[in-house]
């Protein structure tokens, strides 16, 4: 089954990116219960925006060691998004790792 992680993001707005963010948040929060889906995540198939979100989630959840695995290795060299990604009309969050990667909600 294709997941939102791999969809073409052409024309996406705040609502679609927020849904992607929520799906990734759920996946990382419940990664032990959702182990099959978590281990099937293929960052190599994802857009740069999605890869950057995944990297931010890895860092936020203190899972940076996973970037040494084949599954997440390509994320090591990913830096912040070129343009800010707003996930809400008026972002108020102040989560440093997401802000560092230019992701605001």
Task: Report on this structure.
Helices cover 38% and strands 4% of the residues. The chain has 105 residues and is mainly alpha-helical. The protein has a two-stranded parallel ribbon. It is globular.
Which tags fit this structure?
single chain; 105 residues; mainly alpha; two-stranded parallel ribbon; 38% helix
The helix tally amounts to 4
One letter per element, helices H and strands E, the order comes to HHHEHE
Helical percentage: 25-40%
Major sheet: size, sense and barrel closure?
2 strands, parallel
Distance between the termini: 28 Å
Compact overview of the structure:
This protein is mostly helical and 105 residues long. The chain has 4 helices and 2 strands, in the order H-H-H-E-H-E.
Question: Which secondary structure elements does this structure contain, and how are they paired or packed?
Answer:
Blueprint: H1 14-29, H2 35-40, H3 48-60, E1 85-86, H4 96-100, E2 103-104
Parallel strand pairs: 1-2
């Amino acid at each position: 089954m294709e997941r939102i992680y791999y969809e073409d993001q052409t024309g996406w707005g705040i609502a679609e990116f927020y849904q992607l963010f929520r799906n990734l948040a759920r996946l990382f929060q419940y990664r032990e219960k959702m182990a099959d889906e978590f281990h099937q995540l293929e960052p190599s198939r994802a857009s740069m925006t999605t890869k950057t979100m995944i990297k931010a989630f890895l860092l936020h959840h203190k899972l940076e060691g996973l970037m040494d695995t084949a599954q997440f290795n390509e994320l090591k060299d990913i830096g912040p998004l070129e343009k800010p990604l707003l996930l809400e009309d008026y972002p108020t969050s102040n989560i440093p790792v997401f802000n560092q990667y230019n992701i605001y909600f």
